[in-house]
Structures are given as C-alpha cells and as structure tokens.
C-alpha cells in the first residue's frame, strides 16, 4: 500500500530536521575547525620561531691539488651548499670551513679532507632565530677516506656532527674539540684528541664512547664490536699553542707568547721578525711574521726540547710529525735559491741508533719556483711541498722509522723546531705534534 492510497488525515507527518540541533551542530563544527586552526597555527608559529633552521655558510679552500665538487674540479676556493658531494685525489687536500651567518660569520668547525676521500655534505644547519635553544646540526653521509675535524670553543650553543660511513657505521661528535677519522674497506678508525665522540657499529643503534686520548676501531670482519685502545702518544707539550703567557718585549710592551716553545729572531740586517700568540679561524696559533719590505735574510724560529739526553723513542715502532699551518705570505719564490729559505720549515734534531747526531728537515712554500731554484735543501731527504696560500694545510710525515731508513732510525729526540725563513713572510702555525706508538697495540 502506498501513501497515495492512504487518506490524508491518516498519514503520519514527515520528520523534519530540528533547526536548533542543526544550529548547534554547525556551531560545534565551526568551533572544532577554529580550534584546529588555532592549534595548527600555534604549532606552526612555535616551530617557525623555535625549531626552524637555516643553512650555515660553507666554503671549501683547497690547500693542495684540487677537489671535485659535484664532479666539477675546483683548484682554489668554492662556496658550498647542503647536498654537495666532495671528492679528493691522492695528492689533494682541502679545508671546509663552516660559519654562522648570524653571529658575525663566527667559525663553527673546520673539516680537513685528506687525499682519496669521498663524502656527501648532507646538511649543515643552525636555528633560524638567535633566541632558539636548538643546536648546530651537521650531517655527512657516504664518508670514505680520511678527515680531521676541529670544532671551535665557546660556540654559545650545543653542537652535533653525525657522520654516516660507507661501511654503515656512524660517528657522533657532541662538543668542541679535535677529532681524526679514517674509513677504508678493512676498518673504521676514530681518534678523540679532545671532545665527545661516540662510535656506533652498523648493526646497532647505540655505540661506545671514545674517551679523550683514545681511539676506537670497528673492523669490517667483525662489524658488531668497537675496540677501544690508546691513541698514539704526543711527545710534545702545548702542541696546539693554547697555553700562553705575557712577557715584555724589546719595546717595553706586553706581548702574548706561548709556553713550552722558545722563540727567537735572527736576521742579517733590520727589520727583525716577530712571533705572536694569536687566534685565527677560531683556533690558537703561533704567528711568525717579518715585513717592512725586508730584502735581507731573516728567520723566526720556535723550539721545544727534551733533556740533554733526549726523549728515548727506541721502544716505539711508529714516529710521525704532524703540523697544521697557514702560509699567508712569502716574498721569495719557492724556498730561495738553495732551497733553504722556506716560509715554513720543520726540523728535528735526534740521535740515531748508532749514537750519531742527525737532523731531519722538511719545508713548505706556495710561490712558484724560478728556473734554477732548488726544490729541497742540501740536507733534506725529500723535496719541499708546494701548497696553496691563505689556506690551512695539515702535513703528516708518515712513519719516520721507515722514511729515514735503517741506518738513521732515531733512538732519542733532542728537540723539535719550526721556523719561517726568507726575506718577508707571514705564517700561522696551529699545531706541531710528534706522535709515537706501537702498531701492535694500535690495531
């Protein structure tokens, strides 16, 4: 039976929507949408003000050779961006400096990329606004090769740098300090010179803290374990020139100089050189400088020495010199006519296994040599290294026990010296270390 067959007076009234209920429903729905918009807006504003980030400024400066940036060769300097891929050849070295664009271009960290290294600079960020308590956040990926990291002190906010290696392990750096990292097919090796470091195996989410003065190793054959052992011993004190005192110079003025190292000038005629304890690129340096249009030979030399009998190194089977420096200026081409006037020269006086006094030299320069100029000194065992000017460079001698040969292996070290030589020069030295150790205990 249909509604049409039922008399009108017998049909039930059709249900109608209650206007009051509809109004309340619309009001509650609008209120819910309003609350959602307020919540989302509040969260968005909070994120923008306190959690959002902006990139750090990054510059690559090539110390020697050239590097590849996204498969394009760079020989002097290049501004970098997040996501850039960097590669170096066997004889190349580059320094990547990261600056805070909102703190007067304050240097945050320096990455020294050694030869045969590859990495992806995934991101380097800082909080958008100064009032945020968030940290500096840097991440490297697909790292393989060798890397030195220097993180400046007194950053004003927390710091974190995470490195994902090609072997699957991760390295987490959590403070200012100095670190060395080496990754190859057989192992991942890290050294904590100063700071906070955690090494995480590829099969785990948590790792092991690497104490200061120690190294951690993950061998590819045993990827689940982190072996911790002593790092090579630095035989020199104050090798990074952080400890300084004030003295009165020849003019009666107070001058800041480093401790342990004794410095002096020598010249044929005036002007004299000078040695200064300063800060360059966020790190303490010892600056050796001579200017005033000097045209005569001069030297500014710094020395640290052991007792009269020297420091016995016969118990070690590894001995290496490491130095980090920046050659800002030199007036003579190369190392002078005879190869003996380098803007920076390293020197070690020692007694060999047969009791004979010996001296080891190695020099560095950036100005192209002229025809006939010697590329090593008469007493040098290797040619001097040519590097780029105004860029940090880290030199590692390799094992001197192998380099010097069996007849001249050191038995005791008498002193270690570095000096600037020539007419005019301006050099900043950030580290001079003499590392010793045992291969057997260092994996």
Oligomer: single chain
Main pleated sheet = 18 strands, mixed
| Low-confidence parts | none
Structural class of the secondary structure composition? mainly beta
* CATH level 1 class label of the largest domain: Mainly Beta
Strand fraction equals: over 45%
By DSSP (H or I, 4+ residues per run), the number of helices equals 2
Give me the CATH fold name of the largest domain.
Jelly Rolls
- Can you name the CATH architecture of the largest domain? Sandwich
How large, in whole angstroms, is the Cα Rg?
31 Å
Q: Give the number of DSSP strands.
A: 33
**Helical coverage, percent range:** under 10%
- State the shape: elongated
Terminal Cα separation, in Å? Answer: 97 Å
Number of domains: 2
Q: What is the fourth-level CATH superfamily of the largest domain?
A: Galactose-binding domain-like
Q: How would you characterize this protein structure?
A:
The strands form 4 sheets. The chain has an 18-stranded mixed sheet that branches. Strands 22, 25, 26, 28, 29, 30 and 32 form a 7-stranded mixed sheet that branches. Strands 19, 23, 24, 27, 31 and 33 form a 6-stranded antiparallel sheet that branches. Strand 15 and strand 16 form a beta hairpin. It has 443 residues and is mainly beta. The chain contains 2 helices and 33 strands. It folds into 2 domains: 53-230, Jelly Rolls; 244-442, Jelly Rolls (Sandwich).
């Amino acid at each position: 039976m249909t509604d049409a067959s039922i008399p009108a007076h017998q049909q039930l009234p059709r249900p109608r929507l209650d206007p009051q209920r509809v109004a309340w429903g619309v009001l509650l729905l609008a209120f819910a949408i309003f609350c959602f918009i307020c919540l989302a807006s509040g969260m968005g504003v909070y994120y923008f003000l306190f959690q959002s980030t902006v990139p750090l400024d990054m510059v690559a400066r090539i110390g020697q050779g050239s590097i590849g940036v996204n498969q394009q060769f760079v020989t002097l300097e290049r501004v970098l961006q997040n996501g850039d891929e960097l590669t170096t050849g066997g004889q190349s070295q580059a320094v990547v400096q990261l600056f805070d664009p909102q703190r007067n271009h304050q240097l945050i960290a320096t990455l020294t990329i050694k030869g045969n290294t590859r990495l992806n600079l995934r991101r380097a960020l800082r909080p958008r606004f100064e009032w945020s308590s968030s940290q500096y956040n840097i991440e490297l990926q697909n790292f393989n090769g060798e890397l030195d990291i220097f993180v400046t002190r007194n950053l004003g906010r927390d710091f974190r740098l995470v490195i994902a290696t090609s072997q699957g392990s991760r390295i987490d750096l959590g403070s200012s300090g100095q670190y060395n990292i080496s990754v190859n097919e057989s192992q991942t090796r890290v050294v904590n010179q100063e700071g906070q470091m955690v090494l995480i195996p590829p099969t785990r989410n948590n790792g092991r803290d690497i104490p200061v003065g120690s190294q951690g190793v993950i061998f590819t054959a045993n990827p689940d374990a982190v072996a911790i052992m002593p790092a090579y011993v630095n035989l020199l004190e104050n090798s990074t020139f952080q400890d300084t005192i004030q003295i009165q110079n020849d003019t009666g003025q107070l001058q800041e100089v480093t401790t342990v190292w004794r410095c002096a000038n020598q010249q044929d005629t005036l002007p004299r050189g000078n040695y200064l304890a300063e800060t360059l690129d966020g790190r303490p340096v010892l600056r050796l400088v001579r200017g005033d249009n000097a045209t005569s030979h001069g030297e500014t030399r710094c020395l640290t020495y052991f007792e009269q009998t020297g420091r016995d190194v016969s118990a070690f089977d590894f001995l290496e010199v490491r130095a980090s420096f920046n050659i800002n200026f030199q007036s003579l081409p190369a190392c002078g006519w005879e190869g003996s006037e380098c803007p920076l020269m390293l020197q070690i006086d020692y007694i060999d296994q047969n009791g004979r006094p010996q001296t080891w030299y190695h020099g560095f320069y950036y100005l192209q040599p002229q025809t006939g100029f010697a590329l090593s000194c008469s007493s040098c065992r290797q040619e001097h290294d040519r590097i780029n000017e105004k860029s940090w460079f880290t030199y590692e001698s390799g094992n001197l026990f192998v380099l010097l040969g069996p007849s001249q292996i050191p038995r005791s070290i008498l002193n270690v010296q570095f000096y600037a030589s020539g007419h005019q020069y301006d050099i900043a030295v950030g580290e001079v270390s003499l590392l010793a150790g045992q291969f057997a205990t260092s994996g």
